[in-house]
Amino acid sequence: VALSWNSPYTDNGAPVTSYSVYQSNDGKHYYLYKNNISDTQAQVMDLQASTPYWFVVTATNDVGESSYSLFTFVSTRKAACGDGICDTNFGETCATCPTDCGTCRPSAPYVSVLNHTFSSLTVGWTLSKKYTDVYYEVVISTDELNFTTVYNGTANNYTITGLEPATIYYINVGAGNSYGITFNPVYSRFSTDSTVPSQVTAPTFYRYTRNYIQIRWRTPAFTGGNSSDIINYILQISTSPSGGWSNYTVNNFIRTYKFNGLLPNTAYYFTVSAVNELGSGLASNVTSFTTPPKMCGDGVCDTDIGESCADCYLDCGACTYPACPGINKTECSGNGNCNKGVCQCSGSWFGSDCSINGTQEVQVVQRTDAVGFTIKPFASSAALQVSFDVEIISITEVTSSGSVVQQYMMNDQNLTVSKNVGKLVDGTAVQNFNFSTVLSNLANFTMALTLYETATTITFANSSVPITPNGIKFSIFINEWPFGSISNQLKIAIAPPTKTNSNKTVSTDGSNSLQWATTNINGTALYAKFTEYAILDGQIRLVQFTQDSSSNKQIISVPHFWDSAEIDPNYSVLYIPDLSSKSETGNKQNSEDSDSSADNNTAIAS
Fold it and tell me: What is the tens place of the pLDDT at every residue in 180-195?
């Protein structure tokens, strides 16, 4: 009860020094509650609820204490939950009146981290002293929103395992009993330790010869965390998958390495591991590659396997060649250059002795019935309005024994076609045509045609190739073919023109590899000149163009490559008034007479 009063009307000449409050339970018998009160108010505590009380006040000065004041009667209120007093004598408890008596649940404990590694955190907490039968629940999150319970028990610590290295985790511990559980409103924030980098994926092979292998690899998915940058990489090479490793260390910013001084036709095994300030991560899976055997085109004249200028001038240098054929004992009839016994004709001249001349303005039309194109001369005479169809039939991967690994029939593919007319290349007007697709093995295939409107000379595989007016540079590009083995090769089958009443002239060397071919119809000829080299992975390599006598197809045999292959034949459509009046004579050539059968026509190669 809060009491207040006024000072006496008069102090009779002696100032009041203090007041006293007296209390009674019956209004008759008073007892001192408190004296020496300097103020004119007082708070009476510890009263019973719903009980009558009488109070009087006296004043005291230096002379003595006054008589009682008039009494004041007060009856306290009945006890109630929410009055701020836990009235246990009225049955109030934490269960019935938590607002006055407090909650019956234990308070949330204080949490700390006791130990930490790159994959675990050990947390501890204070146990409740006020309550018994208390359990503790540990929850964890990585995003501060979604928490997962990892422990429920009565211990005062727990180790959380299986965590990610260098990762921040949010942890809270709640204390509970039968009345419920209490969590801290603010969770704790802990981080796991850094560790060594994760495993590097197996390296891939970028470039190679018989004497070196260049590998490349990717940065590991996890560098160790908490600014644990990669310091360097450790490369291992061996001729055995189970030991005998030689180690090489490269800088962290380098992810490719060239191993030199290797042996031909030898299997080598490789691993790569990443290193940070804490150590080396797990080495990559072992991967292997076999260097190519000694072969023509590898840049070394290997006399121990029979290479010589005669069968491998690319490695061993040029031999002394016989004179080129020509009219009136003039090499190449004065219409071209003699190169290693073979004429390279100028302008619109063609044939083994460059004695046939003529040119025809042509157009290139995409075929709708096959993967190919049609070369159509513009002719004033209806008799000369002929056309030559070129078609790529299939691409087949075969083993060294000739077994088919995978085959794609090009008629089954959907090609994207683009055309660019009137473009200038080195000052020469050209028309470009591209036919491209992605095969189901994810290899990219493009057939590109460039129609040169005037005579020019192009360079392919370090060789100069003369192009006649209205000549066609026909290129085949294949990228990222997934070979099953480095000993496998591709066979590209091309169908020659299938026109009746035409004759053919085919030039071959001793290995049945095509050098040039013509097909003529009604005095108009399609002339093809073949090169024995292609560009594989940026390197000049030997390929072979052969005539399949059983199917009348031209077959391009391409050895294994990693990234890209470019094969480049060229065609010229020439107007020849009377082809039979010219005799195609010269080195290593066969001539066949006119034949009405379409199956005997020959004109295509790469």
Answer: 898 988 889 999 988 8
Would you give the DSSP letter of residue 564? E
Beta bridge partners of 395: 408, 492
Looking from the CA of 19 toward its CB, the CA atoms found within 13 Å total 20
| Residue 54 φ then ψ, to 5° | -120, 140
Residue the block writes with tokens 């080299």: 533
Instruction: Compute the residue count for the chain.
Output: 606
Q: Give me the torsion for CA of 42, 43, 48, 49, rounded to 10°.
A: 110
DSSP codes joined into one string, 505-522: EEEE-TT-BEEEEEEEET
Contacts of 367 (CB under 8 A, 6+ apart): 373, 374, 389, 391
Tokens of 525: 């000829």
Name the pTM for this structure. Answer: 0.44
Check residue 294 and report its DSSP letter.
S
**In terms of C-beta density within 10 A (0-12 exposed, 13-18 middle, 19 or more buried), how is residue 421 classed?**
exposed
391 close to 370: Cβ distance less than 8 angstroms = yes
**pLDDT tens per residue, range 143-175:** 989 999 999 999 999 999 999 888 899 999 999
Beta carbons of 137 and 150 less than 8 angstroms apart: no
Joined together, the tokens standing for residue 580 give: 């039979």
For 101-129, letters b (16+ CB in 10 Å) and e give: beeebbebbebeeeebebeebbbbbeebe
